[in-house]
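This entry is listed as follows:

___
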Amino acid sequence: MPDAPAPDLDRMSSVRTRPQPARKPAHRRRNLLMLGAIPVVLVGLAAFGIVARQSHDAGLSTWTDAQAIPTVALVKPQILAGSTILKLPGNVQAYYEAPIYARVDGYLKAWYFDIGAHVKQGQVLAVIDTPDLDQQLNQAHARVAMAAADQRLAAITAARWRSLLATRSVAQQTVDEKEGEAEAKMAALQAAKADVSRLEALESFKTITAPFDGIVTARKTDIGALIQAGSSRSDNELFAVADVHAMRVYVPVPQAFVSELTPGTTATLSLPQYPGRTFPARLDTSSNAVNVSSRTALFELMAPNPEGKLWPGTYADVTFKIQHPADHLSVPAGALIFQAAGPQLAIVGPDDRVELRDVKIGLDTGSHVEIVSGLHPGDRVINNPPDSIVDGEKVRPASDAAPSRSPTRA
């Protein structure tokens, strides 16, 4: 193995003894510069914070002032051109409808027409067997015969006593008594005949007849049933007959629409059993009175029924077309403000300030209200105004409102 070269001792000694540069003064200057820059940075941060806070306070003040102005939704009046559709519930009733009761006691002997049958006036519906009434009539006839015999005897006796008076065989007082007895017997005879007439009239009620042309809508008896005279109880009703050549339709109309409906106004009827089909009707009369509990007036319409499609007791939707003047406007019902002086609207002027204007309302359809006076087509009306709104208040229309965001702190 070859020997390694010997190290150069002179070079090594020179490297160790080379002097190093002095570094302490450079570090000191750097530290002094850093210490001097710290106050400058602090002052800058403080100034930036002050400026940022002032800017935030100014933005917050501006945002607060902007939020103090209420934002309102505006609507424009609508022109009521043509007509408004008014739909109300109605009840269809027969032109004539009569429940039929018995006037005599007895048992039902026979009936001849069932429900749905068309009958003519005077046709026999049923016959009642009345044995008690028959016996009472026989007794009445016997009393008439007895009264007639008594009356004849009294008349003969009175005539004889008058002839005896001519010869002065009897006193005048006795003759007057006999003539009075004859007159009393005549009155008794007339009373007996009247009783017979009464019972004969009752006998005519043994036959139940139709009071007018119509349809049998109810039959509540059967052969052999006990019949009791009178209508004090509903179960005493034997038949019900209705005249349906035309129908009466009764409609409760709210008070707000009473002045809009006059006799002759046309309407259409919609019935659940005939979807998609309507029937004509015409307003005939009204009750001329408003019900205190419901604040409605009862109106009667006449509807022709040539096909018999309209049945008594049917529910119907009655639709009216109410004509409006061309210059009348309407607004949503929520835009109205009711004050002590009357109804008002909040109008927004060109300067976005509120004007509380008195108006006169007309037809109220529920969702919209007709304004008869006090409103112009170009007015900007506040919809659902707050209760605290006052005349001259500054507002911001919803279309002009900026996003409602509060300024954030930097």
In short: The helical segments are 9-16, 24-68, 131-166, 172-204.
